[in-house]
Here is the input.
Amino acid sequence: MKIFLDTANLEAIKIYNDMGIVDGITTNPTLLSKEKGNPAEIMQEIVRIVNGPVSLEVIATRIDEIIDEAHKLKKYGQNVIVKIPMIPDGMKAVKKLKEEGIETNVTLVFSANQAILAAKAGASYVSPFIGRLDDIGNEGMLVIKEIVQIFRNYEFRTQVLVASIRHPVHVTEAGKVGADVVTLPPDILGKMLLHPLTDKGLVAFLSDWEKVKKENPQLTI
Ligand code: E4P
Here is the structure.
């Protein structure tokens, strides 16, 4: 399972990128709106820092403008994946960009049927938003399960990128149903790192080692 960070925050990206646990990044206009500075420069910096795929989203909703924005975003770096909303003109753009060799991530997907169509159009990734489905009383993870199964049945090569993740259990569940990628806000990745028994165990190891050192002052490892 690949782990992407769902953020435009450069500090968080650097911290987790340095740990080697981040395979890529997803951004969107809302995430960029939360950061200080020029959004274009922030996107360029993310693309420079991270080796893996970086999804950058178009703002346009009409085919010609989507293609134009996609070309501009792709100039930021080879690892740019153009993020396109799940709308009819978006599908046309996915098809055209695939013909040009430009990879896409179809965003704002909320059903298996939408995911099938994005895959048919030629998307490299589909992003079903599970947290937003949970928010309205649907079970987001069931949609992921359906998409994974359908893509397997027909050997679709489009990767299932689980988005709108709200807590670490979403990540475990996504892994169990066989999703290809999860994209997480940095605070959730932080929570995944921690366990109280790890902290407690480390305190005990360190204090026991202090006792050993008192008895053997010359000891080093
Ligand atoms: C995915 O690519 C989106 O950026 C993101 O996961 C949306 O999550 P939200 O529902 O928390 O805004």
The pocket of erythose-4-phosphate is lined by residues 6, 26, 28, 107, 127, 129, 131-132, 163-164, 183 (CB under 6 Å).
